Amino acid sequence: MPQITIRDAHINYEVLGDKGPWVALSPGGRRPLEGVKHLAERVAAAGYRVLIHDRRNCGASDLVLEGTPSTPSEYEIWAEDLYALLQHFKATPAFVGGGSSGCRMSLLLALRHPEAVRGLLLWRVTGGEFAARRLANQYYLQYIDAAKKGGMAAVCDTEHFRDRIKARPENRQRLMGMDEQRFIRSFKTWADGFLMDAGKPVIGATAAQLQSVKVPTLIVPGNDKTHARNNGENAHALMQGSELYVLFAEHQDVDIVPPQDWEVKDDELAGVFADFMKRAMAKAA
């Protein structure tokens, strides 16, 4: 699979389709690009060129476990990486979308670089205290605990980072070469950012920021406690002219519905996306 250096990180990517408007799709969690590939294939078959990639710290891309003052959260870093990747392919403005963490990244890209985004496809929107606390622990706090107990060797031995090393062996050297306290500070900053967003309508954006988004937006709410339906509905109410599409009418009282339960709806979701993008382009024309 091809790789490219984006902002000093090797990024694993794939382009599906060879003609049509550009679309960038990203999976939720820290899942690799395979987590959204089946959906991307269906969208590409509808006449689009679809960019999928492993975000840094995911899949077979590089581990770079620090932010900067201009990109304090990990999903802001991901947004800047995607912007650079789209610029490389001369793919802007593009329809940009993702589920859960991919949704946060896509929304941040639209807020930071509105000229690069033709429209947003947002599914499994996250928000609220439960999601903020759960995800802060899942993404950061558990690895801080590992580092405190066993240093960077213990971090390497966690399931997520063990998989990242397997996918890209040089990632072990990157991890082992990182100062333990520096790692802890970085992950604490990212965790604190999650926790501070608990009171926002969605994690990663204030009400005013959501209201400022002017591009056509399609929102598909989630159906579990991490991606509560009201998160998507709140975003829809704040984002003028956005559309809401309910893929699962029943809300489940579980921490998270497995991604596989959503993937069985890929054909329907791809059709909804294709129809929305076609209408958005026709209106713009």
Helicity level? 40-55%
- What is the CATH level 1 assignment of the largest domain? Alpha Beta
Could you describe the largest sheet, including whether it forms a barrel? 8 strands, mixed
Main structural class: alpha/beta
How does the SSE layout of this entry go?
Blueprint: E1 3-6, E2 9-16, E3 22-26, H1 34-45, E4 49-53, H2 74-88, E5 94-99, H3 101-112, E6 117-123, H4 129-156, H5 159-167, H6 170-176, H7 180-196, H8 207-212, E7 217-220, H9 229-238, E8 243-244, H10 259-263, H11 266-284
Parallel strand pairs: 3-4, 3-5, 5-6, 6-7, 7-8
Antiparallel strand pairs: 1-2, 2-4
Helix pairs in contact: 1-11, 2-3, 4-7
Mind explaining what this structure looks like?
- It is a single chain.
- The chain contains 11 helices and 8 strands.
- Helix 9 links the parallel strand 7 and strand 8.
- An 8-stranded mixed β-sheet has the order 1-2-4-3-5-6-7-8, with helices on both faces.
- It is of the alpha/beta class.
- The chain folds into 2 domains: 3-128 and 201-284, 3-Layer(aba) Sandwich (Rossmann fold); 132-193, no CATH class.
- It has helices at residues 34-45, 74-88, 101-112, 129-156, 159-167, 170-176, 180-196, 207-212, 229-238, 259-263, 266-284; strands at residues 3-6, 9-16, 22-26, 49-53, 94-99, 117-123, 217-220, 243-244.
- The mean pLDDT is 95.
- The two termini are 36 Å apart.
